[in-house]
């Protein structure tokens, strides 16, 4: 699992992602994702988890706005760039190398779990894992590109049908005590980077409404 603005792999394979990031000095735009800035605008800063943080733009943006951020990614190359970006911005972020399924993360501890353009294999039951991390009253934000071309994706070595999509994040999948909005189609604008060719997002926002849910 990793992302930012684009990108998928079927495994949390650290060597695969390190090789990918090492191909370029910078893969993504360096700007926070537009949907994140919109969805977080009405939230009180608390503890945030950025799943698949890539080169760290979202995590750094959250940290500079008062969030206590933990950022997760399997690529050490990406995380080193993220640390550099955080240092330049004067932001404090806890960087964790690993995949969602295996990372040692405290249950129900995050007021925001942010998952942008994830490559989370459905066989690992990612919805249940993500739900387990959200604190009572907290928000799970899952965003993916709209109109993914499956044939083109298969040519690049992954099958979108095997990966988490926004439509998989439903109240039924999350369990009792959730209010879910979406998937909603939203236009996006990216200045550059590998995700610049995608023009629309699908956004799901799920709030844990019941402490025991």
Description:
This protein is α/β, with parallel strands linked by helices and 213 residues long. It has a single domain (14-208), classed as 3-Layer(aba) Sandwich (Rossmann fold). The protein is 25% helix and 25% strand. It has seven helices and seven strands. Strands 3-2-1-4-5-7-6 form a seven-stranded mixed β-sheet. Helix 4 (76-89) links the parallel strand 2 and strand 3. The longest helix is centred in the middle third of the chain and has 14 residues, at 76-89. 43% of the residues are buried. Residues 1-11 have low confidence and may be disordered. Keywords: Methyltransferase, Transferase. This is Class I SAM-dependent methyltransferase. It comes from Phycicoccus endophyticus. It holds the Pfam family Methyltransf_25. Residues 49-138 form the Methyltransferase domain.
């Amino acid at each position: 699992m990793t992302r930012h603005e684009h990108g998928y792999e079927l495994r949390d394979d650290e060597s695969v992602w390190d090789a990918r990031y090492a191909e370029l000095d910078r893969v993504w735009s360096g700007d926070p994702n537009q949907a994140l800035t919109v969805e977080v605008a009405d939230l009180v800063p608390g503890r945030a988890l950025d799943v698949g943080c890539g080169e760290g733009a979202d995590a750094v943006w959250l940290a500079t706005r008062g969030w206590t951020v933990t950022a997760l990614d399997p690529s050490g190359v990406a995380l080193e760039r993220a640390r550099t970006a955080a240092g330049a911005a004067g932001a404090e972020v806890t960087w964790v190398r690993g995949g969602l399924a295996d990372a040692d993360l405290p249950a129900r501890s995050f007021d925001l779990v942010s998952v942008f353009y994830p490559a989370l294999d459905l066989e690992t039951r990612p919805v249940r894992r993500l739900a387990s991390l959200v604190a009572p009253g907290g928000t799970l934000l899952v965003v993916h590109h709209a109109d993914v071309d499956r044939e083109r994706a298969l040519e690049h070595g992954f099958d979108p049908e095997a990966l988490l999509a926004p439509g998989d994040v439903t109240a039924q999948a999350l369990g009792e005590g959730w209010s879910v909005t979406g998937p909603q189609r939203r236009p996006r604008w990216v200045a550059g980077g590998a995700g610049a060719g995608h023009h629309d997002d699908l956004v799901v926002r799920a709030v844990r409404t019941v402490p025991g849910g």
